[in-house]
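To the team - S-adenosylmethionine complex, inputs and output below.
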Amino acid sequence: MKTTAASKADSSCVHLPTAESARIASTGPKPVEESLGPPLKWAGGKRWLVSDLAQIWEPHKRRRYVEPFCGGLGVALGFRPRNALLNDINPHLINFYQQLGRGLRLTLEMRNDERNYYEHRKSFNELIKRDGSQTPEAAQLFYYLNRTCFNGLCRFNQGGKFNVPFGSYKNINYASDFYRYQRLFESWTFSNGDLAELTLEQDDFVYADPPYDVEFTTYSAGGFSWRDQVRTAELLAAHHGPVVLSNQATPRIVSLYQKLGFSISYLQAPRRISCTGDRTQAREVLAVRGL
Ligand SMILES: C[S@@+](CC[C@H](N)C(=O)[O-])C[C@H]1O[C@@H](n2cnc3c(N)ncnc32)[C@H](O)[C@@H]1O
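Output:
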């Protein structure tokens, strides 16, 4: 993660805050204006955190809002900042948002049917193989697969093929248009890459929600290792402006964030989808710095 030259110093849930979150949530939850939910299902979505985070964001809302791990946009859509830089390493996710900002129209047949699903999955894999992954067609297929596949997972095999099976849901609501997203997304900047490639302005407000730390393993299911957790925290600790980090409250994460000068509070995360299908509750840490 770089800073600009001007910089002097060198990221359908229930909200269940615990008493420990009271230090941050002391003024009570702030209502989120006219709601616009995430258009995709995304593992680790933080929509449930918006009311707590809104109180931290409020005094900084004139700043540019930056999310290095934007995922499903749970928080960005809760805040609706005027100026935002939203990044994720997943190129299909970012293409989808960019196409929405350009006025994506749905022409694909959206049907919750197993045969239709596997045909669309095949078309998507053929398209990304022949370099068509950054097109409106790929964005539509990605949307359809995300809504229709098992658990909204985004998983590829070693050959680079999307391989999530059909979800077998009784009912799926597919959007008929993305008009409301277009108006918002055309004024936001989306980028696709590793967080270290982001160029930050010294006044940026950064909210970072990296993949959860999974303790006792070197590599998590999402391919985000302990070394990635450490470099993320170090990069964010070097940012001049306000930073908020959320993660699973494993002992080593809490110790890392504290060592780097973050102030810590805890929340109880609601049920969540994960790559393994695990839906157990997790204790979440909220780490803040430079507020
Ligand atoms: C926990 S999710 C973020 C969820 C998001 N806050 C939301 O509300 O939906 C973490 C995201 O980090 C992305 N990611 C993983 N490794 C990354 C990296 N090295 N740089 C940037 N993004 C990365 C993943 O693709 C995933 O979307």
